[in-house]
Amino acid sequence: MIFEGRGFQLSILTTPLKILTRKRIKRIALGLIIAVMIWCVIVALSIWRYGSHDDALKSDCIIVLGAAVEGENPSPVFAERIRHGIHLYDSGYASKLIFTGGCGEGHKYSESGVGSIIATQREVSANDIYIEEKSRTTQQNIAEAAALMKVHNLKSAIIVSDPLHMKRAMMMADDLGIEAVSSPTPTTRYRSLRTKLGFLLRELYFVHHYVLTGN
């Protein structure tokens, strides 16, 4: 009877403790969720703001990051990057153009090859164009461009891509030791709020993925 009495008293004491513990866990979980949401908003705003500034200045080369091609034609996204890269070249910001991007599965032409063809059609000297046809990802784009810079003794670069892609690209360039500035395309396929938010959420994920994994 004494044991049962103590057990009864213990159950009376532990019940409120369980309730308090559950409430505390819920408060902690809610706090963590709010903290993560705030952090994501801060990073998303930094991505958005970074892509709104053009920091182009006189450099040794212009690196145009690859994007999809459709046969011999660049996708709308890649077309804007190519156009902007050529504009910077024509404006005298750099004397060399580096197009990046390999050949996707089932494709005949590489991304960099398509960029080079368009540039020569727009009267860019073939001697001023370098291409790499190995890369498949943004990180590989920049790594292969860095290798070309080393071979041709190019010390500084302007990196061209879509506005919301610029922050991650520049993080990678910095990690690879490239002396670079960013020049986002002034126009982009992602014009509606819906498409911009979709791209922003994608970049939010990939920025964190890169920071955590290095890829």
Helix content: 55-70%
User: Could you give me the name of the CATH homologous superfamily of the largest domain?
Assistant: HUPs
CA radius of gyration:
26 Å
Number of self-contained structural domains = 2
Query: What would you say the CATH architecture of the largest domain is?
Result: 3-Layer(aba) Sandwich
What is the chain-wise order of helices and strands? HEEEHEHEHEHEH
Q: How is the main sheet built?
A: 5 strands, parallel
Helix-strand makeup class:
alpha/beta
User: Would you count the extended β strands for me?
Assistant: 7
Low-confidence stretches: none
- Shape descriptor reads elongated
Q: Mean pLDDT across all residues, rounded? A: 89
Strand order of the largest sheet: 5-4-1-6-7
Percent strand equals 5-15%
For the record, give the distance between the C-alpha atoms at the N and C termini, rounded to a whole number: 66 Å
CATH uppermost class of the largest domain: Alpha Beta
- Summed up, the helix count is 6
What is the CATH topology assignment of the largest domain?
Rossmann fold
Structure description:
By secondary structure, the protein is an alpha/beta fold. It folds into two domains: 50 residues; 153 residues, 3-Layer(aba) Sandwich (Rossmann fold). The protein is 56% helix and 12% strand. The protein has six helices and seven strands. Strands 5-4-1-6-7 form a five-stranded parallel beta sheet, with helices on both faces. A two-stranded antiparallel sheet has the order 2-3. The longest helix is centred in the N-terminal third of the chain and has 49 residues. The chain is elongated, with a radius of gyration of 26 Å.
